[in-house]
Amino acid sequence: MSEGTLQVSSRVDDLATLASQLSPGALVTDRDVIDSYASDKALFCPAGRALGLIRARSVDDVVAVMRFATEHRIPVVTQGARTGLSGAANAIDDSLLLNVAGMNEIVAIDPVNQTCRVQPGVINQDLKTALAEYGLSYPPDPGSVAISTIGGNVATNAGGMCCVKYGVTKDYVRAMTVVLADGTVTKLGRQTAKGVAGLDLPALLVGSEGTLGTIVEVTLALKPALAPPITAVGIFPDTASAGRTVTEYMGSGASPSLLELLDGPTVKMVNDYGDFGLPDDVGALLIVQSNATGGGAVEELEAFQRVAEANGSSEVFVSDDPADSEMLVAARRAVGPAMEKYAHTRGGGELIDDVCVPRSALGEFFEKLRLIDAQFDVEVATAGHAGDGNMHPSVVFDAGDEAQVAQAQEAFAAIMQLGLDLGGTITGEHGVGFLKREWLGHELDAGARLMHTQIKDALDPLGILNPGKMFG
Amino acid sequence: MSEGTLQVSSRVDDLATLASQLSPGALVTDRDVIDSYASDKALFCPAGRALGLIRARSVDDVVAVMRFATEHRIPVVTQGARTGLSGAANAIDDSLLLNVAGMNEIVAIDPVNQTCRVQPGVINQDLKTALAEYGLSYPPDPGSVAISTIGGNVATNAGGMCCVKYGVTKDYVRAMTVVLADGTVTKLGRQTAKGVAGLDLPALLVGSEGTLGTIVEVTLALKPALAPPITAVGIFPDTASAGRTVTEYMGSGASPSLLELLDGPTVKMVNDYGDFGLPDDVGALLIVQSNATGGGAVEELEAFQRVAEANGSSEVFVSDDPADSEMLVAARRAVGPAMEKYAHTRGGGELIDDVCVPRSALGEFFEKLRLIDAQFDVEVATAGHAGDGNMHPSVVFDAGDEAQVAQAQEAFAAIMQLGLDLGGTITGEHGVGFLKREWLGHELDAGARLMHTQIKDALDPLGILNPGKMFG
Predict the structure, then answer these.
(1) B429 near B436, Cβ under 8 Å?
(2) pLDDT of A416-438, one tens digit each?
(3) pTM given for the model
């Protein structure tokens, strides 16, 4: 018997001990089930062979897992709905998958203080639906809003279409309960509107991708229900003119509640996917909404129309019909599945990038993106949160063709480099995970890299919290 | 010659070496000048005897100080305008005072991206004035707005009257350049509207009170110039009814741009200090403003009037005259000097507390605050940012009377305990510093305390960054 086998046998015995400390049935050792939980939605990120899967039902379950992991020096990968796009939730060899999607209770909704407390597995849209009954809203709306969890949203600082007016997940996180690497349970942050008692530890945990602790409860600040928007669509001959429109419009102090861009190839894919009433044969579309009250929305969309036309838009449609608004947002939300369908016909490869550049650089970004598209033997189709400068160029390629795969990876990297060259970031909202861990080192300077390592080592001295993710 | 004297002689020689590495005249060794920089505005916080004062003029100066401090294991206390209220900027024995108030350049204002880059010594109001020329605003407005620095505002996560609608300092910080304990210069954060590349290190530095690094440049997000507000004043028989009004009004989803409370004793002090048109003999006043556009402001103040009257307000005045608005804000801003003047007549003692409670608890907070006022042989006068639940009860006492001093300290502590008992925090915006370092341990649980220590030790292994502040 080899040493390796011995070690595994001993670990299987240990797992039986762990099982006895968990909610009944929480520990899964069936290989097929474990492996079915091994990946999130990122491409080119390896999924390791986990020792076991824990479908946690309670904070006690999480504590038991972390104590066990600390005792046995076993890596732990915390997961929610595994809708991430960076491989952060992917299994590591000989790790435990700690899935908290089943901890999905809305603990409390407090209309007076306009806050709520939720477990990490609550689905974003489910929370929105529950809050609507109280006339409240939780704005952050990542593309995965219907299927992703609040815990995952917090762990990745998720964004979405609302950010241009309403900010990102971190702007809503007041407090959280976290299970630390050694199983200690701690409450971080505050329940109040303001507070400066000590370091802002919730802010450190937001976006930490499971590398510093496991979030088991979150207190979120809420807003009153958002006013319904009116919508405009601008048609452009090319992405650069659309980009310049965004630069000028946002620079004028406009505060749209949504400002999304779809380039020509993306519009084609969406039109092939379903009928959302989009025009065909366009260079680019901008969808813009305003929910300003008291006539402000009309003013804001009229201003958009002026700026768009001055920058070469051939036509701007404005509508205050809620059905049109819903249809256009549905079209934007259809970009993901439409691209997936299209990529499937081209060999299945699709790498979604997520650079964010200063809004002043959008015109130049699109001009240079066209050069990247021309340089590599792949297709690049782009949609994104233009109002924030946060663009998602998708590289579509034949995943079965080695040369295409290499080209796709080079194009993907060239897009990130372009983002950095324009003073931007390699990731506006998708996170680092495994996919961009080497690239994080390009974005951060030596001091920032050292601070990351120092904080990681301080809070996770055994290196058991999602090792190999984020930190290259 | 004693060992102590030897050590001091050697340090004086060392300081000469340091001086040669700094901008000409940056190092001050004149004892009187050093001592005149030894304190911020907090009471009951000891000021130590610093070795020297460096009036830094450049990042290089800060780097030289930190390298020197690391080499010689000398504590460094970073300071701005020393307007803080927690003793965070107070000298420590044998420390270096690193004053960055002279690094006061507005490096860049970027109207297109609505950001600016500023050195830490820029005065908040000076930045506001410069931005107004571009039609831009930086909302955070601590009471010290006319005299405090952006660096200090960031290091303490300063708040103010705008927070109820526009948030606090941390909501505006995108990036910063920091000099770490060993003199390493690092850029943290991003210039873009969104970004999730790595841990949110700027958020960790915001509010860190000089314990993790020295901030030498900040990139701030800006807003378009704020719309001018209209104003209402509600008169109440007591603070509890005013508190209940705030709870109900804010719970209705109102979004006032200012919602301040002054209790009866405070109103008296302000009226003794100057004529701001405030009524006399009131239990409490609420000042509320709305700058909602398109008729929204009038609606919001009418709603306030209804809620106030339903909760016992005897009268609500509404005005859309900008002069009235300015006068009332001036009255609120006069609370500080008015209390100081009053306290002077009572023996000079004034301890300003800074608890923040959930808005739902404001009624109960005021009821119990009255009991504290009655229990101790001191006067308690309260003003504060009621819309955020962030109240500043001031304990006024005879600083020359030992018994009164003891009573004042007990009352001060009782107010913090009341804040904690109601689910609040010991500090909404003033910070921990020296004044509340023991209390931080009461607010944080064991896990959070450990995380603080781990992070502090990781980023400042020699313990030279403002030691003894924040961490008890």
Answers:
(1) no
(2) 999 999 999 999 999 999 999 99
(3) 0.96
